[in-house]
Model the fold of this input.
Amino acid sequence: QFASGIELLDELHSIARQSHARLSEAAVDMGISLAPCTFVCDEAEAALPRILQKAAGTTVAFIYATCWPSTGPYLSQLSCDLASMLTHGSRVITVDKELISDDQGQWKFEQIDSV
Done:
């Protein structure tokens, strides 16, 4: 089990680390163990490949990509990046934009649900 967060803005990165510290303290008090979690302050395009290499076999990715470059409603570059890094059958959760499949059929993202 592994979790990681990437944030570009120093202030939000700091808030994430502080929030996780409070969560960790509360988890100890409740007798709950948390998965190891790392926080990276960097461009997501640079940090994501490093994180996914360390976490080989990742099958679930939550991407809050409101600022990620997109083409209309599609996360074109992120789709390409994730397709090359995640294993077949992985699940990706996005917030406001969609992943797109490759026109040449090299990879396919299937939308399972939408809220």
Notes: The first strand starts at residue 3 and ends at 7. The radius of gyration is 16 Å. Helices lie at 10-30, 44-54, 76-85. The chain has a mean pLDDT of 87.
